[in-house]
Every structure is written in structure tokens, then in C-alpha cells.
């Protein structure tokens, strides 16, 4: 059996499964999205099958949100910590495949920097586990995934709203900034909202880039 070879890329495990949500808010159809020090507790907005009961948000001005359509949203890698950069790749994208309960399947598409066509050179299936009301995302390591990325078994959702999010490697200490990746939906891949971008700049180690490369279009 051939051994899997781990190769450093971006902190690529995305999320992915994000959806429409305001920074504070949800109506009675959804579990709450809580904003505390840049970290959000997200239930139904991450996966519509996870909410089992309603939770209250005393003193918070609730607003209606749009029906979640996260399951059909592709996410684009628009920024990352310099320690995660690999110049062999120029474009990274993650489209949704399917979901069942707390399990979400997405693809990780990557294009080599020297590729002249619009074809994707790497197409890897990723299996994600998202527990209710949590900021952690568990990733199933596979031979193919380990071959193209230095995947971690768990990631932390540092900041999230309906159009973009910041994903980091597990936090080792309060003093140490984590390595992160910044992801955005199609309409925001060239101009990430400042709310998310500011979290990326302040919380992550050596952040760089904040838009999807024009050469990837």
C-alpha cells in the first residue's frame, strides 16, 4: 500500500456549510447565532438538521434571517496566514456535495499556478462533522486529502456571517495567534466585508491577501 504523503497547503478545511445569517439575529424558526468576542455559536445556520429545540436570547434584538441556502454555496479561499502558503497552487474553491445529519461533504478544488486552462488539477472529497452549537469542525483524514494538504483533524470557526468566515487551526494558547484561512461566497470573493476581514487581520498570524485571484476567473 502506498503511503500517503502530507503536503503543506492552506488551512483548507472550510467550511464550508455556512449560510445566511446576520451578526446578531434570528427569528423563531432558528436557533440563535451568538456574538461573543468574535466567536459565534451557530446551530441551524450551519446545518439545518441540527437544531432540536429553541433557545432564547434575552435582551438581544432579534431580526429575521433569510432561509438557509448554505448547502448550495461554493466557498472561495481569499486569504490565509503566510505560514500556510504554497506557491504551487493559485486557486482554491470548495463546492457543496451533500449532507446528512451533522455530516457534510464538500469538495476541495485546487489549480496549479502554472495551469493555463480553467480546469481544476486537484479534486478531493472532504467529510466534515459539525456538532450543534459549536465553533469546532471535525475533519475525516483520508489518504487523498493527506496527499494534497496538511489537514488537521479539527478546526475552529473564529468568525462567521452569511457571506464570509475565518477558519483557524486549534488554538494552542491565548498568547499565540493561530494560522487561519479566510473564505467568502461568490459575490464577496473580491471584496470581503470589513467585519470579517478585521477579525482575520487581528486574530490570525501573518495574514495575507483578501481577495480571490483574478487569474482564477
Overview of this protein structure:
It is a single chain. The protein is mostly beta strands. The chain has a single domain (1-217), classed as Lipocalin. Helix content is 7%, strand content 30%. The protein has two helices and twelve strands, in the order E-E-E-E-E-E-E-E-H-E-E-E-H-E. It is globular and about 45 Å long. It starts with 33 loop residues before the first strand and ends in a 9-residue tail after the last strand. The model is unreliable at 1-71 (pLDDT under 50). This is Lipocalin. Keywords: Signal. Residues 1-19 form the signal peptide.
Question: Which characteristics define this entry?
Answer:
single chain, 217 residues, mainly beta, Lipocalin, 8-stranded antiparallel beta barrel, two-stranded antiparallel ribbon, 2 helices, 7% helix, disordered N terminus
SSE layout and pairing:
Layout: E1 34-36, E2 39-41, E3 75-81, E4 89-94, E5 96-100, E6 103-112, E7 122-129, E8 136-139, H1 143-148, E9 154-160, E10 164-168, E11 180-184, H2 194-203, E12 207-208
Antiparallel strand pairs: 1-2, 3-4, 3-11, 3-12, 4-6, 5-6, 6-7, 7-8, 8-9, 9-10, 10-11
Computed over alpha carbons, the radius of gyration is 17 Å
**Major β-sheet, in short?**
8 strands, antiparallel, barrel
What is the approximate shape? globular
CATH H-level superfamily: Calycin beta-barrel core domain
Q: Which architecture per CATH? A: Beta Barrel
* CATH level-3 fold name: Lipocalin
Number of domains: 1
How helix-rich are the residues, as a percent range? under 10%
Secondary-structure element order, N to C: EEEEEEEEHEEEHE
- Quaternary structure of the protein: single chain
InterPro entries: Calycin
Keywords: Signal
Protein name: Lipocalin
Organism: Rhipicephalus zambeziensis
Amino acid at each position: 500500500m502506498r503511503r500517503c504523503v502530507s503536503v503543506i497547503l492552506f488551512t483548507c478545511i472550510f467550511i464550508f456549510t455556512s449560510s445566511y445569517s446576520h451578526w446578531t439575529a434570528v427569528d423563531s424558526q432558528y436557533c440563535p447565532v451568538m456574538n461573543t468576542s468574535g466567536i459565534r455559536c451557530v446551530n441551524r445556520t450551519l446545518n439545518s438538521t441540527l437544531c432540536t429545540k429553541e433557545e432564547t436570547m434575552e435582551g438581544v434584538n432579534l431580526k429575521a434571517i433569510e432561509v438557509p441556502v448554505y448547502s448550495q454555496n461554493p466557498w472561495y479561499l481569499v486569504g490565509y496566514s503566510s505560514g500556510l502558503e504554497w506557491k504551487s497552487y493559485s486557486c482554491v474553491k470548495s463546492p457543496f456535495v451533500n449532507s446528512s445529519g451533522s455530516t457534510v461533504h464538500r469538495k476541495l478544488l485546487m489549480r496549479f499556478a502554472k495551469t493555463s486552462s480553467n480546469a481544476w488539477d486537484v479534486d478531493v472529497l472532504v467529510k466534515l462533522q459539525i456538532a450543534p452549537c459549536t465553533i469546532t469542525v471535525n475533519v475525516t483524514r483520508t489518504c487523498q486529502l493527506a496527499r494534497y494538504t496538511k489537514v488537521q483533524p479539527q478546526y475552529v470557526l473564529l468568525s462567521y456571517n452569511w457571506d464570509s468566515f475565518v477558519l483557524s487551526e486549534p488554538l494552542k494558547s491565548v498568547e499565540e495567534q493561530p494560522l487561519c484561512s479566510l473564505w467568502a461566497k461568490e459575490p464577496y470573493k473580491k471584496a470581503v466585508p470589513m467585519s470579517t476581514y478585521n477579525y482575520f487581520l487581528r486574530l490570525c498570524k501573518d495574514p495575507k491577501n483578501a481577495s480571490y485571484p483574478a487569474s482564477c476567473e
